[in-house]
Amino acid sequence: MKYEAFVELLEQDINNGRYDQDGKLPSEDVLIESYQVTRYTLRKAIAFLVERGQLYQVQGSGIYLRRRAKKGYFNLDDTQGITSESRGINQNVETKVVSLEEIQFKDAAFVPEGLSLSPETILYFVKRLRLLDGKPFVVEHSYYIKSLVPYLNHEIVEQSIFHYLKEVVKLKFGFADKIIRTEKLTQEVATLLELKKDDPTLVIIDEAYLSNGALFNYSKLYYHYENSEFFMHATMK
C-alpha cells in the first residue's frame, strides 16, 4: 500500500473509532501485518499523524490517541482544506460557487503582504461559499496560479480543489503559511454569510506552496463569527 493511501486509511480508522477501546494503536508489527505496509511507511505515517495532532508517542509504552476535538471545531493546523477536515468530525460540507474567472495578477482584489508576482501572471480567481451542516460557514476568495494549476472548471471547484490538485494534477504539496486577523464584513461577504455589513469576521490568509517551494495558491477566508470554532495542537518542549 502506498504511503498516501495508508495515511488516509489509518486516519479514517482512527476517526471511526477503531482504536478507541484501548486508546492506543497496536504494536508496529501488528500494524504492519494488518495494513500490509513497510516499517518505513508506517513510521512516516505515524510521524505525520503525530504532527497533525491525531496521535502522541510515549517512549517505551506505545502510540496513543489524542483527544479528538468536539463536533464543529476545525483544526487550524490543517492544510488540506475544509472538505478533508470535515470528514474527521463527521459534518457535511456543501459548496456554492459564486464565481470562477481568469484574471491577471495586477487585477487581483487582494494580494498578501510581501507577495510579488509578474503583473501579467494569469490566475484563476474562485469565490465560494461553504456551508457546514446547512449553515453558512466561510466565504473563500482563492487565487490559483495557472502555470501550476492549468485547469479549473465549475464542476471541479464545487468539490475539493485540493483533492483534485493532489490526485488528478499530481501536485506535490509542501507547506502553508497562515495569517489570522479580524475585520469587518463588506456588504458582499455579509450577504453570503447571512450577516450584516460591518459585523465582525475572523479572517485567515493562506499561502500554499509546493514541495519545491513554489507558491501555487493564496486565499482570503472570511468565517462566520457565530458558526465557526477552531482549535490547534501545540507541542510543549
Automatic annotation (TrEMBL):
In Pfam terms, one family for this protein is UTRA
Q: What stretch or stretches form a coiled coil here?
A: none
Q: Name one GO biological process term.
A: negative regulation of DNA-templated transcription
| Annotated signal peptide | none
Taxonomic classification, please? Bacteria, Bacillati, Bacillota, Bacilli, Lactobacillales
Record's keyword annotation contains Transcription regulation: yes
Which SUPFAM superfamilies does this chain map to?
Answer: Chorismate lyase-like, Winged helix' DNA-binding domain
The UniProt entry, under SMART domains, shows:
HTH_GNTR, UTRA
The cross-references to PANTHER family, in alphabetical order and at most eight, read: HTH GNTR-TYPE DOMAIN-CONTAINING PROTEIN, MANNOSYL-D-GLYCERATE TRANSPORT/METABOLISM SYSTEM REPRESSOR MNGR-RELATED
Query: Under the GO molecular function aspect, what terms does this record hold?
Result: DNA binding; DNA-binding transcription factor activity
Q: Which residues form the HTH gntR-type domain?
A: 1-68
Transcription regulation recorded as keyword: yes
Query: To which species is this protein native?
Result: Carnobacterium maltaromaticum (Carnobacterium piscicola)
PROSITE patterns recorded for this chain? Answer: HTH_GNTR
Listed name of the protein? GntR family transcriptional regulator
Which keywords belong to this entry?
DNA-binding, Transcription, Transcription regulation
